[in-house]
Design goal:
Elements: H1 9-33, H2 41-56, H3 69-86, H4 92-122, H5 125-137, H6 139-145, H7 151-167, H8 174-190, H9 196-209, H10 213-237, H11 250-254, H12 268-276, H13 279-297, H14 307-324, H15 336-366, H16 372-404, H17 408-419, E1 424-429, H18 432-439, E2 448-453, H19 461-466, E3 471-475, H20 488-493, E4 495-500, E5 510-514, E6 521-527, E7 533-540, E8 544-545, E9 550-559, E10 567-575, E11 580-587, E12 604-613, E13 621-631, E14 640-641, E15 647-649, E16 652-659
Parallel strand pairs: 1-2, 1-3, 8-16
Antiparallel strand pairs: 3-5, 4-5, 6-7, 6-14, 7-9, 9-12, 10-11, 10-13, 13-16, 14-15
Helix pairs in contact: 1-4, 1-5, 2-3, 3-4, 4-5, 4-7, 4-15, 5-15, 7-8, 7-9, 8-9, 8-10, 9-10, 13-15, 13-16, 15-16
Length: 661
């Protein structure tokens, strides 16, 4: 029996199916989990940096200074193509939807290359399919492939460089080695950690070409010159050493060190092992290594190991590990090249276990043992491999299910954007606050403010109302509402408007509650040409007054975007029939204690109280209570718009007030 020595057609077809499935999986996850207006944390930075670079021609002076340039160049190119086809209708969401779709294609390429590398190193299509299957399902790879981040192209070009390196050795092909250097350079320009790829073609040339110096010297010299030119440009021209990313990032933490320290050298191996599945992964790798040696000694036709190639991969992994050790522990997504190569090793080991059992069965057959003994060792080996591999597969499959099922957090954001064009202040348990911050500013201005609390029971509902909150979100990942979901006092004051519970959803279960607003009369308007200020409603002490009386009026504002203007609130009590002004008042908000030039956005909540003295001479009649704002410096009134953006003038009538004797 020679399971892996048949025609390669079926194996290639199976590999193609896995690659297509990887793409479909990522597209489903992208569609279900990431609405177009929702930017990931890194995507927000990337968008700011690409816009900054296009405006200034450099990243100097921005938080993106020194950031690897390949991703930003790719994003800028994608943005220009989208702009070309969409013209004036383009939105930021279109840019990132296009970038995410491109990254899905990069992920498919990485999946294919992982399978080809495993096939090259083991001579086994079975190992290639197992490796491709691992890359198709690897949770971190799936997650990053749904975003417009550097990881998918970084992975693909890293694996492409390694694959070219492997196939260029025997016989030595200098063109392929130059291609390996170029693709390695591209990979490094996406993420600097893959810098070892730049020197590996030179090492292969030295290893295999030292006997023919005349042929080896020219490509070796050219590659060396290109390497020196690239490093010189990165250091002096692009100033890559100035990279800080964002405050608090892992990169920012190492800036300013006076010496090179391997901060995480000792414990990163344990984290990598745990990410790969822990003890089960180590057991499969150990047994597979023994099986591989046995197959090699037996000269088995099922697997032909490229021991030197396995060594080159190990050299790359170790070099990458040394670079990553300079940082404190970072997210596993930054380790993806190593994680995927460890997956390749795992696939080869699993295939070796199966073929070692098969080879043992074949020997038993030659010894004229019963035919069923051929399948017994195969079954035993498969059972052992399945037992140890299942925890890894189970973890990955559960993670994949979470990514392709609808996520309550993103569904709730869809609901807020669809149902609250006027924006809102939201108090949420758990981590929903993070999503609102990264979601803001994608295709519309910031119009939501979300704060977090350990429990919706931490304060009475009246306290939330006093702070301007209109919606409360219960999160099953917190020990809050869901720990006591039948609290009668809470439910009597909070109305559930969106319930996302049950097994049909991935992620924390959510319930959105609406609570009565603090304002007596809710009314929503935008003030300013850029909708910088949101009017939320008002309180009115009375609609029937006598001359000389005092009218108490409370206005409620939210700051949507920062403004430097000193805006004055004007209040008029106007009789339209007689053109008589019975009362007026012009003041900064909150008697000058909350001037608008101090408003910083993020839907800050302001309570603006006014006492309006009615003229003693005001004749009886029906008056219009009007408010508006004007710039104290220019005396220009701010335009006012409804929640749909339609202009309504430069003042708004709040109520009719009757003055009677």
């Amino acid at each position: 029996m020679k399971l892996d020595r048949t025609k390669k057609g079926p194996w290639v077809t199976a590999l193609g199916i896995i690659v297509v499935a990887a793409g479909v999986l990522r597209l489903i996850g992208l569609w279900n989990g990431l609405p177009r207006y929702l930017l990931g944390r890194d995507e927000t930075d990337y968008y700011r940096w690409t816009i900054y670079f296009q405006q200034h021609g450099t990243l100097a002076g921005s938080e993106g200074e020194g950031y690897p340039p390949a991703l930003l160049a790719l994003l800028i190119g994608e943005q220009k193509i989208v702009n070309l086809f969409r013209s004036q209708a383009v939105q930021v969401g279109d840019h990132f939807l296009a970038a995410r779709l491109v990254n899905v294609m990069f992920a498919c390429g990485g999946t294919l290359l992982g399978g080809l590398i495993a096939r090259r190193l083991s001579g086994s299509w079975l190992a290639g399919l197992a490796a491709a299957g691992y890359l198709a399902l690897q949770p971190e790879f799936v997650e990053e492939s749904r975003l417009a981040t550097a990881q998918p192209p970084w992975i693909m070009f890293s694996l492409l460089s390694l694959w070219l390196l492997l196939i260029a050795r025997e016989p030595l092909n200098y063109r392929l080695l130059m291609a390996a250097f170029i693709t390695g350079a591209i990979s490094m320009l996406f993420k600097y950690q893959t810098a070892p790829l730049l020197v590996m073609p030179l090492l292969v040339m030295a290893r295999h070409g030292y006997r023919d110096i005349r042929r080896t010297a020219p490509p070796f010299a050219v590659t060396t010159i290109l390497l020196a030119a690239l490093l010189t440009w990165l250091y002096f021209g692009y100033q890559a050493t100035e990279i800080v990313n964002t405050p608090g990032s892992a990169t920012a933490a190492i800036v300013g060190r006076t010496s090179l320290e391997l901060m995480s050298f000792g414990n990163s191996w344990y984290r990598l092992l745990q990410e790969m599945g822990g003890i089960p992964y180590a057991v499969v790798l150990g047994i597979g290594s023994i099986a591989s040696i046995a197959l090699w000694r037996m000269k088995s036709p099922h697997m032909k190991f490229d021991w030197e190639g396995l060594g080159w991969l190990a050299i790359f992994i170790f070099g990458f590990y040394l670079i990553m050790s300079v940082f404190w522990e970072v997210a596993m997504s930054k380790w993806l090249p190593v994680l995927n190569l460890l997956g390749v090793y795992w696939a080869i080991a699993a295939a070796a276990i199966a073929y070692a059992a098969l080879a043992f069965g074949e020997r038993l057959t030659k010894a004229r043992r019963p035919r069923w003994t051929i399948y017994m060792p195969v079954g035993i080996a498969a059972a052992i491999a399945a037992y140890f591999a299942w925890p890894i597969a189970d973890r990955d499959l559960l993670s994949i299910q979470d990514r392709i099922r609808p996520n309550p957090m993103t569904i709730s954001m869809d609901w807020f954007y669809a149902n609250l064009p006027q924006g809102a202040r939201i108090m949420a348990e758990g981590n929903l606050k993070y999503l609102f911050y990264v979601g803001s500013g994608f295709t519309r201005p910031t119009q939501f403010h979300a704060s977090s609390t350990a429990s919706l029971y931490s304060e009475p509902i009246s306290a939330f109302q006093d702070q301007g909150y209109e919606y409360l979100v219960a999160d099953s990942s917190s020990q809050g509402f869901f720990a006591d979901p039948n609290n009668a006092e809470f439910l009597s004051a909070a109305e559930p408007v969106l319930t996302l519970t049950g097994n049909d959803y991935a992620g924390p279960q959510l319930i959105v509650f609406r609570i009565p607003p603090r304002q007596q009369f809710a009314r929503y308007l935008w003030f300013g040409s850029a909708h910088e200020i949101s009017f939320r409603g008002f309180d009115l002490s009375s609609t029937t007054l006598k001359p000389g009386a005092t009218l108490d009026l409370v206005l409620y504002w939210m700051s949507v975007q920062p403004t430097t203007a000193n805006n004055i609130v004007f209040i008029h009590l106007w009789n339209e029939a007689t053109n008589i002004l019975a009362a007026s008042q012009d003041n900064p908000p909150n008697h000058g204690n909350s001037p608008t030039w101090q408003w910083i956005g993020d839907m800050q909540f302001f309570i603006d109280g006014h006492q309006i003295q009615i003229s003693d001479e005001a004749p009886p009649g029906e008056y219009s209570l009007r408010i508006g704002m004007y710039d104290a410096d220019t005396r220009q009134r701010l335009p006012i718009a409804g929640v749909d953006g339609t202009g309504v003038g430069n003042y708004v009538e709040l109520a009719k007030v009757t003055i009677q004797k």
